[in-house]
Every structure is written in structure tokens, then in C-alpha cells.
Design a protein that fits this description.
Blueprint (H helix, E strand, L loop, with lengths): L5 E2 L18 E2 L4 H7 L7 H12 E2 L8 H15 L3 E7 L6 E7 L5 E2 L9 E4 L5 E4 L4 H11 L6 H7 L8 H9 L3 H13 L3 E2 L2 E5 L6 E5 L12 H7 L4
Antiparallel strand pairs: 1-2, 2-3, 4-5, 6-9, 7-8, 10-11
């Protein structure tokens, strides 16, 4: 085992992963060979290309099994530990209505963890008394849904939730079943995903440097969290040059 690998405490606590010892999940910061892949990421190939990166930097778990909350945590962990923990944000102060720039420390953001005792599949009772078994969406689910939705884009919305159903049917069959499901029952499936959201909390408090008013802001997801370039790169490392 390389000394570059470090233990990582995932927000899921590895509770959704049968047979995985959380103490043996390790990660390392990016190196040059990873940046080759990172520099090739586009909105169209993000899922498959970043999966290749995850396979390079993770040990102790198949990256395809990662929940989306764990993957997002890893994205920020890599940005913090490979590049910088400080980012600059420009926003409009809701009090003085002036455009201001803030510095945000990503390393101190709150993290939401899955509750102790969480197990999946998680059984939900539908309005007709029948039960459906659910699981948190994984990287594999998203990649599979993306593959099918390329030829069936009108059902994009349902492919996401079809991936959370645990049964012996294929993804297209699950989508067909969801299309005929009552809205109140589909809502239960959507609520399950929301109830067990885990990962970095992208809300932080900042103080306006112009009027000293404190407010909460939502840190927007940046594509440069994968690979800082241009202004984002200068923002991260400009003071060292």
C-alpha cells in the first residue's frame, strides 16, 4: 500500500455497502496521470471519465458502488487536498445590494452523514398496501440511466428513480412501472432519496465586507471542482507565483 493513500470517512459511513470495511477505504490526492483524465472531462462524458479517475485514486471499494453523496464528498475532498480549500465567490449582498467577493473555506463545511442503523434495501409501503424495496442511487445507477436515456430522453426524469428500485426487472421495465404509478407513490420514492441525503452541506455563512451583514449563501457547484483551469487555477495558486 502506497503511503500516499489516506483513510477517508465517507458520509454514508459505508452503511449501504455490504462487505465493505469503512476503515479500509483509502484515497490519495491527484497526480499528473489523473490530471490527464480530469482535463478531458466534459458535461457529456463526466460520469464515465470521472469513474476512471475514481478507480485510480480509491482503494477498498469499487467506485461504481459509491452513493452520489459519497462521490460528491470525494470530489470536494480531492479539490481541497489536491488544489486548495479556499475559493472565491462573487455574489450580491441581500442587505446593501452591492456586489461583493467572499472567500470560502471548503474544509470547514458541515457534512451530513447517514443515520446509524441505516440499512438497504429500504422497504416503503405504497397506497395499495404493496411494498417496494429501495436503495440509494449509486454511480453505477447514474451511468446505466444515462446509457438508456440517450435513446429515450423523454423519460429522463424516471430513469433516475428507477435506479433506486431493488427488484429483478431491468431498468426499462422499471421505468414503465413508474409511469403507471400513482403520483403519491412516486413521491414516496422521491422522498426516500431526499430523506437520506448525505454529503457536504453547501450552505455557509458569510459577512459582507461592505455592510457587515451576515447571511447564508449557497456555494454553487463548479465544473472546476474537477479540474481548475483559467481564472479558477489562478485563484487557487496565483499567490504562490
Amino acid at each position: 500500500m502506497s503511503e500516499n493513500y489516506l483513510p477517508i470517512s465517507l458520509p454514508s459511513k459505508c452503511l449501504p455497502y455490504d462487505g465493505i470495511d469503512s476503515s479500509k477505504v483509502l484515497i490519495r490526492p491527484y497526480c499528473g496521470s489523473d490530471e490527464i483524465l480530469l482535463s478531458q472531462i466534459t458535461p457529456l462524458n463526466l460520469e464515465s471519465k470521472f469513474l476512471c479517475v475514481l478507480k485510480n485514486v480509491l482503494q477498498g471499494i469499487d467506485p461504481e458502488r459509491l452513493t452520489l453523496g459519497d462521490r460528491f464528498y470525494i470530489i470536494l475532498w480531492e479539490f481541497i487536498n489536491s488544489y486548495t480549500n479556499i475559493i472565491s465567490l462573487t455574489t450580491l449582498c441581500s442587505n446593501c445590494l452591492k456586489e461583493v467577493e467572499f472567500s470560502v473555506d471548503l474544509s470547514v463545511l458541515d457534512v451530513t452523514y447517514l443515520p446509524e442503523g441505516y440499512k438497504q434495501p429500504y422497504s416503503v409501503t405504497l397506497s395499495d398496501g404493496s411494498k417496494v424495496k429501495l436503495k440509494l442511487l449509486s454511480v453505477k445507477d447514474v451511468i446505466e440511466a444515462e446509457k438508456y436515456s440517450k435513446n429515450d430522453s423523454e423519460n429522463d426524469f424516471l430513469y433516475e428513480y428507477a435506479g433506486s428500485i431493488v427488484d429483478d426487472n431491468g431498468l426499462p421495465e422499471r421505468v414503465t412501472w413508474l409511469k403507471n404509478l400513482k403520483a403519491r407513490d412516486l413521491a414516496l420514492i422521491r422522498v426516500f432519496q431526499e430523506k437520506f441525503v448525505h454529503g457536504p452541506n453547501m450552505v455557509t455563512k458569510v459577512i459582507c465586507p461592505k455592510c457587515q451583514e451576515e447571511e447564508e449563501i449557497i456555494i454553487p457547484f463548479r465544473f472546476t471542482f474537477f479540474f481548475p483551469a483559467g481564472a479558477a487555477l489562478v485563484d487557487a495558486f496565483g499567490k504562490r507565483i
